[in-house]
Amino acid sequence: MAFESLTDKLQNVFKKLRSKGRLTEEDVKLALKEVKMALLEADVNFKVVKQFTKSVQEQAIGQDVMSGLNPGQMVIKIVNDELVKLMGSETTDLPLRPGNEITVFMMAGLQGAGKTTTVAKLAGKLKSKGKKPLLVACDVYRPAAITQLQVNGEKQGVEVFSMGDKQKPVDIAKAAIEHAKANQQNVVLIDTAGRLHVDEDMMQELADIKANVNVDCTLLTVDAMTGQDAVNVAKEFNEKIGIDGIIVTKLDGDTRGGAALSIKAITGKPILYIGMGEKLSDLEQFHPDRMASRILGMGDVLSLIEKAEQSIDQDKAKEMEQRLKKAQFTFDDYLEYMGQIKNMGGLSSLLSMMPGVGGKITDDMLPDEKQLGKIEAIIYSMTKEERSNPDVINPSRKQRIAKGAGVDISQVNKLVKQFEQARKMIATIVTDFEAGMVLEGDVVSIKEFGAFIEFAPGKEGMVHISKIAKQRIDHVEDVLSIGDHVKVVCLGKDKMGRLSFSIKDVAE
Question: What is the pLDDT of residue 224?
Fold first, then answer.
């Protein structure tokens, strides 16, 4: 998952800040030291990290923060704002000429960065916006490059202009423009050749195309997984031929994310799109504010909604919502919506967009997405009763299911366990708390007056200091620590209408 490592580290830093009622200057400096290390480990450019932490510290040790009601949250807001600023502040759209005027994009990048796939993804995006794109095969050196573009163009329903591999790229580009004029195509996307490294021949070829064709926008494709190398490549391309925007590919496979966080600051050029998977639909417009929110583990609700609108059957979604509200979730539901989840980029992608969820659900609670075929086989090996009522699945039934699916019984046990955990969490999220309800959760914050317990993402409750232990305690920290897993009972609402919970009153 993109930024996974960085998000985890930042979440730990902020958890410590939130647990403190007051912040000292030393608290802030210590937290920012950890933030700095997290950014450097994420392969963010050293100069960028230095400037970033300096800016955050200058704002965070101000009087307003120190004396604020919730200083921990205020520091997090400052970090969020600086991350947004670092990545470009505003979302940058592709420059498109009005009406039927032809807009020409030239794609550049090193070999292996995913340029040919990305240009087809971009053509699909533009087509969905009502444009009539033309893909142009100007990579005449890499074996099968033209064929690859033609295959991807066919999948997207976009024409590919090719003159084979014996013509000069500049001549192909000029002929493509004339072809577009004759066929009322208003966007031309030129796929150029990449090399294994930046060299003079490559740059001259790109310069020749720009000198002979009116290129409106030069887009550079860089591989996120190459980290600082991607930043250096972007800098060189910008200095030698001039680029207008950047597309970062393979961000879904980069747990660090240093390239995405450094490129704008180093080159001054905006990131326009990010590649988040291998499918031709896996290209997202880059929103700095949404990405900052994802990095900090606060989710990306707007992108989640956009994905859902594109991929999910709305009637089925409403039906599912009603079932979840009734705390009903079966293996049949799992099968029905597995396909839709795949269309939206997979479970890990979705969870990264859900506020507070990504960092809370562990890998052992999720099925391995590479094993989804086996999971489907296991579920299809269940009887109708077992799929609708998982509670009836006993050891002997598991043996039969495993045999029917052709898997080891341990895989059946794992799936059933994951399902039970997910169902339990869903029930906690959608169910209103009632007096007498016994719940389990983790201590996420400690105050002088009590402790806050998180039962599920977005579901918290407070245990007053008087309800923590049977004996009197002077300090919450004497009994509880951040991260402790505890069992509580809901006491109902207090005189002010707030839900109250108790640890000491849980039945033994």
Answer: 85
